[in-house]
Amino acid sequence: MKICFAASECYPFVKTGGLGDVIGSLPKSISEENNRKKSREKNDVRIIIPLYKGIKTLEYDIKCLDEFGDIALKIGDKDVSFRIWNGKLPGTKIEVYFIDCPVYFHREMPYTNDPDEDERFILFQMAVIETLQRLKWAPDVIHCNDWQTGLIPVFLKTTYKWDKLFENTSVFLSIHNIGYQGRFSERSVYNAGLSYNDYYNGGPYELDGAFCFLKCGILYSEIVSTVSPTYSREIQTSEFGAGLENVLQVRKDDLYGVLNGIDTNIWNPKKDKYIPYHYSRKEIENKLKCKKELLKEAELEFDEEVPVIGIISRFAAQKGLELLVPVINDLLNLPLKLIVLGSGEERMEDFFEKLTFSFPHKVNAYIGYNNRLAHYITAGSDIFLMPSVYEPCGLNQMYSLNYGTVPVVRKTGGLADTVRDFHEYGKAGNGFSFDAQSPYALYDTVVRALDTYSDKKTWREIMLRGMKEDFSWKHSAKEYTVLYKKAIEKKKGLA
Ligand code: ADP
Q1: pLDDT at 37 over 70
Q2: Angle at the Cα of 480 (from 474 to 486), degrees rounded to 5?
Q3: What residue ranges line ligand 1, CB within 6 angstroms?
């Protein structure tokens, strides 16, 4: 099969969250999938992302494909051009193509609140198709991801319908977070060069008076997936659907939940290049040394008996960290240390900064983005806290489980699919979870975890169970392969 991933992030080139991790790892597993089965047919997997200002072209040997020159496009009234750059996903033979359009992508961050945010990703999506044309490469499946790629299936069925190259190309859309939908004004329909007939009068492009890229993706793709089975059910309800629940219900027969995997070459305590000591289930003692180093770095006192709670998160309402606010004083009366890494909403940045100031012997918060520290905290903490309001999949709890860092989570989305509450599941439990979106439920659950921590033997059993979980992409890659075939059949009108 020929599969093209189109996305707005791909680790290690650019990452702001889980999407970057997924696009940096799932394609590897898909390309290995047929090799694993010793099939004669090899999967040809390629990736297309924007060439943001921050991408280190020299470090990753990314070069401009001069033969294609400047490719001109019209975005609304603007004449814009882009170039195609090319490199390999590090450690693999996977081709990555980069859309180089400095007027749109040389900004401080990959995502902006600038008034031309729609234009940036309209350009990107058209450029994905134009790149495939230049390469004369027709994928069997374009695997789109989130709203930044939601118009690709629309363009294939309208603007680029004339091109026979894509006659058999199907589109598979993965929703990584329904909270981000790419809703723009009706002017964007013009910018995208699409027809207002499909916007007005309840047309498929429109949602609550906005031009919604994600809605387009959901309606125009052959198959739609999201990143965990529980979340695929949740988003069909008004509580979690963020206004798209009815649209998703229309596609419910083509909607699947495939749990994300993790890149076990990068997130693996046996070989993690960022942590001071390596460890495994058999040699778990070194985890304690990681804890010591982490506390040293955080300028907090080490005490084996006092557990370290780690948080690594975007500070967004979705992550539920506000639940901590009413109970933080009670929590900090308990024997624990808190180490936080994150950035985002100013309110939460201030909250954690003030905590560090008020409780210098118990709390250290690092406000910002720091990949190395994320690995350090994952390895050196005893407990990982993730009280999300909603969580499409969540990667940090899976990393934590594999690092013997016991997760305390709210039971939602992918957290519900990966963390089994110790009290509910007894000898099968691998963490702690709570249902209610309430500060007291969070508090009680942390207390339960701390009580269990003091029982060393039981705690060790919970840690070891987490470390044994297999979150590698193997299983999910198989599921995706089956679903890609479904998408291809649908495109051919066979399903
Ligand atoms: P989301 O995609 O909603 O942010 P996930 O749990 O799926 O949440 O993935 C988050 C990813 O981003 C993880 O790899 C996590 O380690 C990383 N991450 C989040 N915040 C930071 C930060 N401040 N510094 C470094 N890595 C971070």
Answers
A1: no
A2: 150
A3: 17-18, 21, 312-314, 341-343, 369-371, 374, 393-396
